[in-house]
Amino acid sequence: MHSASSSKAQPIRMSKFPIKTAMDEKYVDQECAYIKTALIQIQQKCNSVQSFEDIYRRAYSMTINKHGHRVYNGLREVLEAHMKKVRQPVLKAPSGNVLPIVLETWKDHTVAMSMIRDVLMYLDKVYVARENVEPVYDLGLSCLRVHVICYKDVNERIRRGLLDMIQQERDGGLIDWLLLKQICSMLYDIGVYEQEFEKLFLCETAEHYKKRGIELISNNTSTVYVDQVEKFITDEAIRAQRSFKDETKKKVLETIENELIKAHMQTIVDMEGSGVTFLLEDHFLHCNKSPGEGRIVDLRKIYHLLTRVNGGHSILCKAVTEWIRQKGALIADPALQSDEIKSSPILYVNSLIELKKYADDMLTKAFRNDSSFKNKLYAEFEQFINKNPNSAESLAVFIDEKLKSGARVNTDVEMEQSISGVMELFRFLSNKDIFEHFYKRFLARRLLNERAVSDDAEKRMITRLRTECGYQYTQKLELMFKDRELWPTLQGAYREYLDGLARHRPTLDVQVRVLTCGVWPNSITMQCCLPDDVERAYSTFNDFYTKRHNGRKLVRNTYLGSADIKATFYNPVNTAFSEAESSTAEFPSYSSVAHVEVQKILTVTTHQMALLMLFNQENVYTYATLLEATKMPEAELIRVLQSLSMGKAAQRVLVRRAANKSKAAEFGKIASTDAFFVNDLFTSKLTRIKISMVSDSRKNQSNESRNVDREQVRQQTDEDRKHAVECAIVRVMKSRKRLAHNNLLSEVISQVSTRFCPTPLLIKQRIEALIERDYIIRDKNDERVYNYVS
Q1: What pLDDT, in 10s, does the model give residues 665-699?
Q2: Which of 166, 184, 182, 185 is CA-nearest to residue 174?
Q3: Which stretch of DSSP H or E encloses residue 402?
Q4: Beta strand 738-740 pairing with 562-572
Q5: What kind and span of H or E run contains 605?
């Protein structure tokens, strides 16, 4: 609390400076001499007898009486004389003491100039502004710059001292970081930092690291070199952060990058035994054997280093892309493929999946998901996968193996991985319609033979295809599943129909699978003469179906059917007799001698069943007789006979007697006169035996057969493509009404690109076909413009 005062507060009174309205020359000289003496004492750090207030008053008086120039010039004279005086200790100092003396001079000078600026404040405010000359403080810095710092001998000693300190620190020595920073700050403040220090510093830095770079790259691997360069960059960044301005830090790092990275980046990439190609190959060979990052760390360092400079990114990307191209060519190029990969679609697709997985791993872990790397690598995958004409078929075969029951995929995770791997490669396919044809064939076999590993897996695959290519791509595949879902319902209705029959009820249990025409692949449609009982059963089912679905017609296809046959073999009791009989008799029979009846259930195809049932009527048939009796195509009959008489020893239920003994051992060479009869010596530990057909799978069928199959798919695909292109043309023209030729081409390609890539020639041919059928017409004024005919 302040106590109240009875007396009023007195106002503060300021005395006015005496202003002399008229000054003679002698007085002016005296005043100038007085001020100069005071300034000299300030510079010399002497205890002045004059007060700062007195100096200020005199300078003020001189300024308002138009003598400010005398004071300003006197100040310059004092400063110049003082700078010449303080320059001498710098010139005489030993090399190691130059920088501390310069720094001390700088500190003293800035303190003195601050005082001088204060006492000459009015001069600075009025005279300097009016005459447009340097402010008092800046005048002091200019004098220091001209007469001390930029003086030729002093200048050289300062620069040499700074550069020697930096080199000493680069060599591992200890230096006075604060001194280095303060000297650099001094040079910056007086405006000579770039000219007197930075340029020379950057030149010496470039020369230093140029020598170091050549030495390191010649004596070390690329990985060691990269590690050392990273260390240099880190050290220089720390040094610049401690002592230099931010602009210098950027320039220093750019200099180092040019000398250590840009000058040697091609060598880093191509270095034998440690370059990028070697690292990629080494990690690819060992990534499965030794899980972990392995060479990824080295690749990541190289990527980080090279992407710091212009051109480094493209050089590294080119090297990685070239390696992927070479690896892909060894897998996919028919001219470079190994025999093992060429003969095994499974191995071919597995190799591509591994390479794709490896490339994605590199992109994620080493190259930070670089979009340009990703685009170029994926372009390479697309190129070499589509270069192989059998890629679409191989993908379909691979996924067929995974989705078939009995495959070695045990868990949902493994199944999902297989589907994902195939879909990643599927995205690169340009001819997705060819894959669709093969996939549809294999799916039909899995569904008809009940070999699908699970409905969930099948539907997941179809869902992935629909997501990738659209609903139209998988429409028929989904309709195939709908047909299969109706089979149990239809079979149940058929059984109820049979229960209602009073007579003429079939003695055989027949299951007929009805396939919607146009949905299921119809590449193989065969007919054969069925046994009477089977024929009657089929006729009964046909009557049932036509009554249930009025207007529908069934067309029988026995190619993919199957049957269970109860077979009786008469194994002779006397083994010695049986061996003698089989070797001497042309067509041995043991039913009339002591024998044992052996009952077996044979699981066979419909065509095998039709042929075997004939031996209930006759003991021996020739090939020509069987061909006439079964009405099978000759190639199919040969396959059936091969599977029954020339297959595995445990499955030979028929015996072949060749008319020409010299050709009896020739597998598959069946003459029209060759005879066949039941093998009563047939034995097996199993009660139910599956008789496999001679395989026409992708693994075992001959190249000729595979080429014929592929040609059929190609022909069907070509026809489908014609229709797809025509539909696209009509859709585009219907919406646009009038369109130029080039624009129509681009629109059509865009619409059908999810299935295949049409050639301009194909589109042009379909345009001509539509013109002939009056869907579109050419414009009368411009032949390259089309109009839609509504």
Answers
A1: 454 577 778 889 888 888 888 888 888 877 544 33
A2: 166
A3: helix 391-403
A4: unpaired
A5: strand 595-605
Q: Could you tell me the strand order of the sheet in which 620-622 lies?
A: 620-622, 675-678, 654-657
Residue bearing tokens 């006197």 = 74
Q: Which residue has the tokens 């952060």?
A: 241
Indicate the pTM of the whole model.
Answer: 0.76
CA atoms in the 13 A half-sphere facing the CB of 79? 25
CA distances (Å), origin 357, targets 287, 333, 421, 740:
11, 19, 8, 44
**Token pair in block for residue 152:** 């030729």
767 with 722: CB under 8 angstroms?
Answer: no
Tens digits of per-residue pLDDT, 118-176? 999 999 899 988 989 999 999 999 999 999 988 888 888 998 999 999 998 888 888 88
**Position 407: which residue type?**
A
Phi/psi for 754 (5° steps) reads: -75, -15
Three-state SS string over 197-228 comes to HHHHHHHHHHHHHHHHHHHHHHHCCHHHHHHH
Where the chain has pLDDT below 70, the residues are: 1-23, 47-50, 288-294, 406-410, 502, 522-525, 573-595, 647, 649-651, 659-668, 695-709
Q: For the purposes of burial, counting CB atoms within 10 Å of the CB of 54, is it exposed (0-12), middle (13-18) or buried (19 or more)?
A: middle
Q: Which two three-digit tokens encode residue 22? A: 């008229």
- Measured between alpha carbons, how far is 790 from 322 in angstroms, rounded to an integer? 53
> In 10 A of CB 264, how many CB atoms?
18
Cβ atoms 679, 700 nearer than 8 A: no
